[in-house]
Amino acid sequence: MPPTKPPTNRQVTLAARPSGMPKESDFKLVETPVSQPGPGEILVRMSYVSVDPYMRGRMNDVKSYAPPVQIGEVMGGGAVGRVTASKNPQFAAGDYVEGLFGWQQYAVSNGKGVRKLDPALAPVSTALGILGMPGLTAYFGLLEIGKPRPGQTIVVSGAAGAVGSIVGQIAKIKGCRVVGIAGSDQKVAWLRDELGFDAAFNYKTTKDYAATLHELCPNGVDVYFDNVGGAITDAVFRLINVGTRIVVCGQIAQYNAEKPEIGPRLLAHLVVKQARAEGFLVFQFASRYAEGFKQMADWLKQGKLKYREQFVDGIENAPRAFIGMLQGENTGKQLVCVAPELS
């Protein structure tokens, strides 16, 4: 009887550092033998792989909050999968787990930073979205830095994305008036009609951001949750109130710029309005993740939070999903479905 062929691991690696918007040729699909776990390790077969805006920064040859992905390395990122073999007493074969396993079908891990999931709580894919890093980013960014109060006006840019859509809903739970900014009429309708935003507008068809914001925010802006930067943020600055909190979560409008954009100098608004702009990374709240997961799960169970997931099938299509996400093609959380039969 011929020997059984060992399983193959398909991996997406970084092939070139992009200039501007990434291209599919900046990635390479490779096949390697599946490694087996050693003492204290587990082997995970992926169900879903995440694509997120922060990954664009890791493609550059500059260290920021995380080291850059090297040419030839597997693209890093969160993923959900099922343990197929374990030599770690904390995990058993069959467990669903979430961790930074990268863009690949299989990964070996020592279990550090790996979270065991309960499939009865919610679909395991949500561990990469509303019950994962994007959900925690929205939760801690809005509540700890934005500090919204009932009756205040909250503006969210990138409002139809994985983080922004949750920020707006949490703000509504806290009794705020919420205005969203998104990139299509369909997204605007989703924000208003399904997620309960008080108002929203399509920035791609709006000629004067400042005038539209003035109309939708007659009492000014008390909290601005910024996911995009650029001209939208410039317009919001003109409407901030005394004591406004500006939560700088992302600057996706700038991530693919090949040279710095020239824009207005806006810090004087902070002086006049005695306002505060603060950037953050969700990892600074790591000691409180359990609190965030519990509250988000409770709100989800109570029907106070809604979410949307968008899927692209096949690990080979992760680059296409990533580029589409950067171009704003997704509504809600963008995922790559690697092995749907496991979920």
Question: Keywords for this structure?
Answer:
Rossmann fold, 2 domains, Quinone Oxidoreductase, Chain A, domain 1, alpha/beta, seven-stranded mixed beta sheet, single chain, six-stranded parallel beta sheet, 343 residues
CATH class of the largest domain: Alpha Beta
Helix content: 10-25%
Shape: globular
Global mean pLDDT: 94
CATH topology of the largest domain: Quinone Oxidoreductase, Chain A, domain 1
Could you give the distance between the termini?
33 Å
Descriptive report:
The chain is built from nine helices and 15 strands. It has helices at residues 55-58, 133-146, 164-173, 185-193, 209-216, 230-237, 267-272, 289-301, 318-326; strands at 8-14, 27-33, 42-50, 79-86, 96-99, 106-109, 115-116, 153-157, 177-182, 199-202, 221-226, 240-248, 276-279, 309-313, 333-337. The longest helix has 14 residues, at 133-146. It has two domains: 8-129 and 308-342, Alpha-Beta Complex (Quinone Oxidoreductase, Chain A, domain 1); 133-283, NAD(P)-binding Rossmann-like Domain (Rossmann fold, 3-Layer(aba) Sandwich). It is α/β, with parallel strands linked by helices. Strand 9, helix 4 and strand 10 (199-202) form a beta-alpha-beta unit. The protein is globular and about 65 Å long. Helices cover 24% and strands 25% of the residues.
Task: Provide the fold topology.
Elements: E1 8-14, E2 27-33, E3 42-50, H1 55-58, E4 79-86, E5 96-99, E6 106-109, E7 115-116, H2 133-146, E8 153-157, H3 164-173, E9 177-182, H4 185-193, E10 199-202, H5 209-216, E11 221-226, H6 230-237, E12 240-248, H7 267-272, E13 276-279, H8 289-301, E14 309-313, H9 318-326, E15 333-337
Parallel strand pairs: 8-9, 8-11, 9-10, 11-12, 12-13, 14-15
Antiparallel strand pairs: 1-2, 3-4, 3-6, 3-15, 4-5, 5-7
Helix pairs in contact: 2-3, 2-8
